[in-house]
Design brief:
Elements (H helix, E strand, L loop, with lengths): L1 E6 L6 H17 L4 E3 L11 H7 L1 E2 L4 H13 L2 E12 L2 E9 L5 E6 L5 E5 L2 E4 L12 E4 L2 E5 L8 H9 L4 E3 L6 H19 L2 E4 L3 E3 L5 E3 L3 E3 L5 E4 L5 E6 L3 H9 L14
Parallel strand pairs: 1-2, 2-4, 3-4, 10-11, 11-12
Antiparallel strand pairs: 1-17, 4-5, 5-6, 7-8, 9-10, 12-15, 13-14, 15-16
Helix pairs in contact: 1-3
């Protein structure tokens, strides 16, 4: 399975972001990628509450989703749009992933379940729950015969999500993200490697990078981690895309060596 991870510095205008993404996806497909993954908030990086509500669209009206569906069909590829900011009410949004099939259909959706409400210090804080509606359902989708589990960014810090996805059959875990600079430098690589090791899955994490129009800085380093926990691709900090060939037989080989998914037990902590 030849996959491509697109790394972006998305701006605050949907139309221009869509054009950039489409260009990278076309180039990746021309180099043989049959599955392409993009980061969280692919077509809009906007932190201002009023502006993001103004710029976001309902799913049926979203120009980016329409363009990406047409592109998947044109290129005959599977396209994972890491997430789009989708309006679900006049004053509420969802951070929604999409899996688009080679005929342009929406094969799966996933709304980010864990919302980033943190105070990082130095004036950097986030309160996603003030604006976003969390999802409550995990999703495993068959991508050309390969079961893949969906997640978004902050979900990465909750290991049970990935355990559940693996127990539901996932062999690939998708973690599109827009990690901050400080948390990325400290935690990004180790968390992604841990999720791979714990589940015996490949982990594909397309990321936002650099300084965005709104002043936010993201960490970059889109990663592919194999089921043994080895980083087999690291995109660094530059925009563009990274192509990797996955040997999916490795999933079964690793799980035979370390069959931890067969050893789960229901245990609880006692006060």
């Amino acid at each position: 399975m030849r996959v491509a991870l697109v790394q972006l510095t998305s701006g605050d205008e949907v139309t221009s972001n869509v054009a950039v993404v489409c260009a990278y996806v076309r180039e990746a497909a021309a180099r043989g990628a049959t599955f392409v993954s993009t980061p969280e908030t692919t077509h809009l990086m906007e932190m201002n509450r009023g502006k993001v509500l103004e710029k976001a669209s309902f799913e049926g009206d979203d120009e980016g989703l329409e363009a990406f569906r047409a592109l998947a069909a044109e290129l005959d590829i599977w396209l994972h749009i890491g997430s789009l900011i989708i309006k679900v009410a006049a004053d509420k949004l969802a951070n929604r992933s999409f899996i688009l099939s080679p005929d342009g259909d929406i094969a799966a959706r996933y709304d980010k379940a864990h919302l980033f409400d943190v105070e990082l210090g130095g004036g950097e804080s986030y309160r996603e729950s003030a604006l976003y509606q969390p999802g409550d359902t995990l999703s495993v989708v068959d991508i050309d015969g390969v079961p893949a589990g969906l997640s978004v960014c902050y979900d990465l810090r909750f290991p049970y999500v990935y355990r559940d996805l693996a127990q539901a059959g996932a062999k690939v875990l998708l973690v599109p993200s827009a990690f901050t600079q400080p948390t990325g430098a400290s935690h990004w690589h180790v968390l992604l490697r841990a999720r791979a090791i714990e589940t015996g899955c490949f982990v594909l994490a397309a990321a936002q990078t650099g300084l965005h129009d709104t002043g936010r800085k993201t960490y970059g380093h889109s990663l592919v981690v194999d089921p043994w926990g080895t980083v087999i691709a690291d995109a660094g900090e530059a925009v563009g895309f990274t192509i990797v060939d996955l040997d999916l037989a490795m999933v079964d080989k690793v799980r035979q060596k370390i069959p931890s998914l067969q050893h789960d037990r229901a245990v609880s902590a006692k006060p």
